Amino acid sequence: MGLSCLNQLDPLKVATPIIEKLALEIEHSVAIAVWGNLGPTIVRMIESREPIHVNMRTGTVMSVSGTATGKVFAAFMTKEKLDALKALSLGDRVSHGDADLRLEEQLTEQELKQIRKDKLVSAVGKPIPGVNALSAPVFDQSGKLALVITALGPAISFPAHGDGSIAKALLASANEISNRLGAI
Predict the structure, then answer these.
(1) Cβ(161)–Cβ(143) under 8 Å?
(2) Which domain holds residue 99?
(3) Are 149 and 167 in contact (CB under 8 A)?
(4) How many CA atoms lie within 13 A of 81 on its CB side?
């Protein structure tokens, strides 16, 4: 596939069948988020058969500092964009808990470095008690963050640790999408 073909790839079209397969494999819900006008925005949601009590659907804007999805965006956005986001008086347009803390108090540089290294973020019972999540970045051919995929499920059946089977399947899917988008 030539470079001109890579430039025409739509990350959502590439990702959708892969996350559908992932949702079946892990038997949990999987979502795709992109950076929208108000922050991390869910654009695709594959529901699992096992119901979870979350108000997350297409169009939902996720907290930058209070969700696994948002933290991946924060870790991989440009320093200028992150600094601009930190300068907002609210720090985070969507509040999930620590609304009085500014973004730089909620996301430390050490945490962001760890996310960049692991390429995985877990959320155990936060922001929604009883629901766990794992999020991973997907990169495009220029090495920039294209989207984030998030798997989530009930804490009782969704182990949100980095060496579990769900994390491994999520990372493999994120890498497959990245590779298909031409990431290096």
Answers:
(1) no
(2) 10-180
(3) no
(4) 12
Nearest to 67 by CA among 97, 24, 23, 22: 97
Region of 19 (left: φ > 0; alpha: ψ -120 to 50; beta: rest) is alpha
Residue 104 counted as domain residue: yes
User: How many H helices and E strands in the chain?
Assistant: 7, 5
Sheet containing strand 121-124, strands side by side: 39-46, 29-36, 145-154, 131-139, 121-124
Name the more confident of 86 and 5: 86
Q: Looking at residue 176, which CATH number applies to its domain?
A: 3.30.450.40
Which tens digits make up the pLDDT trace of 95-146? 444 444 455 556 788 999 999 999 999 999 888 888 999 999 999 999 999 9
* Structural domains of the chain, count: 1
What pTM was estimated for this model as a whole? Answer: 0.85
| Beta-bridge partner residues of 147 | 138
